[in-house]
Amino acid sequence: METNNGSVGTGLQLVGLSEDRNTQISLFVLFTAIYLITLIGNMTLVTVCICDPHLHTPMYFFLANLSLIDVCYSSAFVPNMLANLAVRRRVSFAACGTQLFTFLFLGCTESAVLLAMAYDRYVAISLPLRYTLIMRKSICITMAACCWIFGSFMAIVDTVTTLQLPLCGHNVIDHFFCEPNGLIKIACTDTFYTQIVIYVVAILVLVIPSVLILLTYICILITVVGMSSSMHQYKVFSTCASHLVVVTIFYSSAIFMYMKPVSKNSGNREKIGSLFYTVTPPMFNPMIYSLRNKDVKVALHKVIWSKISPIN
Fold this sequence. Notes:
By secondary structure, the chain is an all-alpha fold. 75% of the residues lie in helices and 2% in strands. The protein has helices at 21-51, 58-86, 93-126, 131-134, 137-163, 180-185, 192-225, 230-258, 267-278, 280-291, 294-308; strands at 12-14, 90-91, 172-173. A three-stranded mixed β-sheet has the order 2-1-3. Helix 1 (21-51) runs antiparallel to helix 2, helix 2 runs antiparallel to helix 10 and helix 8 packs antiparallel against helix 9 (267-278).
């Protein structure tokens, strides 16, 4: 990464969420609690999915992948954000680039996994007799591997393109973590082509998956309407509604951030918008998807009881 005025050794300054000290303390307490809830909820879900054989199904396989992504996703920037709230500090270019790649890699992978989960629900509801054949173990593993590979490829393209921009001497990013738009704002050159690359990546990672997910749920809705049992209709709607809530929050906020021209005067709005696809989904995913699910509750009870029984 090139910089002007010989500032390469000074690193980058993240402005953070607020300049007010009292607000910083409140935010530190709030995001510490959110981070702990995120870790506990997602790691619990991953542990239960691994330990209970009854949850070795495609749906919970992808949920475990999603929870693992969310743990890594939150850990990629929340601890740094907390450190920045506690003590204002600079980050090196290498650390910023690493955080940028990690953020993009996990975000792109999560988008692909959400699409895989929607497809799984479509096959389970619309093609129940062929479900075990279509969503067999080898296919699920291949789909998950493709999600991770897709995420890494998109992240490499976006990261390399962004880090090639020469930065201005002040090197102050008006954000709480290193992300593409924040770096574009302090670039000392024309960023038109960089923004085009980001738009293309956003279309591939956000727009196309969200449209495909919408189409799968339209097909699911058509299938549900044709069901004769109102009980089955309610069960399907309740299962799919939770997925749609997470998808709506994640995609709407991310599309809002990366499918619009970069503005140098929209720092606070962008920071708030970023919270909706970085902090909120990882915390609520295990609650919305599974921790209120009867199968998960039974499995969690079994896991806890198996740990307590030897002691007694």
